[in-house]
Structures are given as C-alpha cells and as structure tokens.
Amino acid sequence: MSIHTRSKRLTVPQLVAMKGQQKIVSLTAYTSHMARLMDPFVDFVLIGDSTAMVGYGRTSTLDMSLEEIIGHTRAVVASTRLACVIADMPFGSFQESPQQAYRNCAEVLARTGCDALKLEGGLAMAPTVEFLVQRGIPVMAHVGLMPQYVNVMGGFKAQGLNDATAQAIEADARAHLEAGAFSLLLEGVAENLARRISGFSPMPTIGIGASPACDGQVLVTEDLLGLGGPQVPRFVKQYADVGALISQACEQFAAEVRDGRFPEARHCYGV
Ligand code: KIV
C-alpha cells in the first residue's frame, strides 16, 4: 500500500514539480465518502464530468451542469485535506468565449475552494487557456479522446492512431503548453504519442488509457471498483468488486427484513 506522508493539501506548483521525480496518482470522485477514502493515496482528486455517466446514469458527459460540478466539488473539497482538487469544466460552460470561460471558472474556484480546473479542447481552446492562466486560473488541458466531442468523434474512440491525427494532437498539446497549462491530460492515445508528448512537455502529463509513458495516471474510480456501468473502457483494470459487495449486503438486508429478523432490539434507537 502506498500512502504519502504530506500533512497539507498538495498545491498546483507542487504537483507540477513532481514531473520526473515521482509518478502522479489521481482518481475521480464526486461524493464526500469516496473523496475521504482516497485522500491519503492520491496526489489529486478529479471531479470529472464523467460523473454524468457513472453518478447519474446518463449516456454522455454533455449534460453535466455547472451547478452539479459546483455541488460535487464542494463535497470533495470538504472531505479531503491532502490531495489537490481539480474540477472539470462542463460542456458549454467555457467554449463560447474566453470571457464566458473566465466567468464560469472563477465561479467554480470561488464557490468550491478547489485548486484548479480541467478543460477539454484542442488548438481552438488555447487562447482561452491563455486568457484564464493570465488571470489566475490554473488550467489542466485535456487532449486526445475528449468525451465532450463525442458527437464529432462518432463515439468514445482512441485518437491519434495515424500520423496526421497524431500530429494534430501533438499540436494541441504544444499550443496548450504555450498558453500556460500546468498539466496535460492525455486520454485514449497510443503509447508512442504519449511518450513523445511527455518527452517534450515540461509540465506533467496525466494519462487515462494512454500508456505508462505518461507522468501520472488517472482512472474513473467506479471503473476500478467494479461499479462502472455498461460502458467500462477496455483498458481499465478492476481492483475490487465493490458492486458485488453492495449487492450482497442489500440482499442480506432484504432477506432479514422479509423474514422478520430485522431490526433486532440492538439496532433500534432508545434501547
Ligand atoms: O470526466 C472524467 O472523469 C475525466 C477522466 C476521463 C479523466 O475527464
């Protein structure tokens, strides 16, 4: 079991300084109990908009609202004291203009107390990233497979599999680094591309389905716990079957209630 020894919340500059020193560990969370349990083990907690799918049972991440991200991020910040906390900016909350992005990012930072924000997007989003960074908003840029572009991509598919598309993703990464992103999240890209980007990037790369060549790894927690829905990606390693445990506990409770074995006196108030 690897548990870190810090006594205070990891800051964004400290996270950046881990590049080349130590692999960065991250998981997603959107509830208080999950965030509290992972806090001693991860360097940053991501409140991903994947919450729309794994938490709300929706079919894509597109209808995650700003209010929902704010609510979940507040729960995570309140329940962690060691991990850096990074929130996803939902679809439609930042793409319109740098000004819209700034207004909504500032609202998330101010109302939640999180440390940084993650934005999906290629080259076209780089001027927005620059606008935000210059105004005090730390940005992690998400490139490669971008679930908010599911309709453009025609599904959740690995990206950059031929020379032309790999070069386009590399150009996206370079543009975000020039714009001042403190980290790059690489989703669903091949190992040689992840290795190339991690090689030239002075900022840490965080991979999901993007090979061990990245400076760190993130997973959607429900997937590694066996709580994912029908769309668990192929690359996910499942570390536990919490879903089976929950089913077992529910089944046992139901049986005891139906048999008149629950509650026993010791499980009642006032006894
Ligand atoms: O929303 C999310 O959970 C993410 C991960 C896929 C990195 O962005």
Give the number of domains.
2
Q: Give a quick account of the main beta sheet: strands, pairing sense, barrel closure.
A: 8 strands, parallel, barrel
Gap between N and C termini: 40 Å
Q: Assign the CATH architecture of the largest domain.
A: Alpha-Beta Barrel
CATH homologous superfamily heading of the largest domain: Phosphoenolpyruvate-binding domains
Output the CATH class name of the largest domain: Alpha Beta
SSE topology string: HEHEHHEHEHEHHEHEEHH
Shape: globular
Helix and strand content put the structural class at alpha/beta
Strand tally is: 8
Overall radius of gyration: 20 Å
Ions and ligands: 3-methyl-2-oxobutanoic acid
Strand residue content: 5-15%
Assign the CATH topology of the largest domain: TIM Barrel
Mean pLDDT: 96
Quickly count the helices.
11
Spans of at least 5 consecutive residues whose pLDDT stays below 50 are none
Q: Which percent bin holds the helix content? A: 25-40%
Please list the strands of the largest sheet in the order they lie side by side.
1-2-3-4-5-6-7-8
Briefly say what this structure is.
With 271 residues, this protein is α/β, with parallel strands linked by helices.
Describe the structure.
The chain is of the alpha/beta class and 271 residues long. It has two domains: 12-240, TIM Barrel (Alpha-Beta Barrel), CATH 3.20.20; 241-271, no CATH class. Helix content is 39%, strand content 14%. The chain has eleven helices and eight strands. It has helices spanning 12-17, 32-38, 51-54, 66-78, 98-112, 126-133, 150-153, 163-179, 191-200, 221-224, 242-258, and strands at residues 24-28, 44-47, 84-88, 116-120, 139-144, 183-187, 205-208, 216-219. The chain has an eight-stranded parallel β-barrel with strand order 1-2-3-4-5-6-7-8, surrounded by five helices. Helix 5 (98-112) links the parallel strand 3 and strand 4. The longest helix has 17 residues, at 163-179. It is globular, with a radius of gyration of 20 Å. The model has no long low-confidence stretch (mean pLDDT 96). The protein binds 3-methyl-2-oxobutanoic acid. 3-methyl-2-oxobutanoic acid (KIV) binds at residues 28, 46, 48-50, 88, 185, 187, 208, 218, 220. The site of 3-methyl-2-oxobutanoic acid (KIV) has 11 residues, from strand 6.
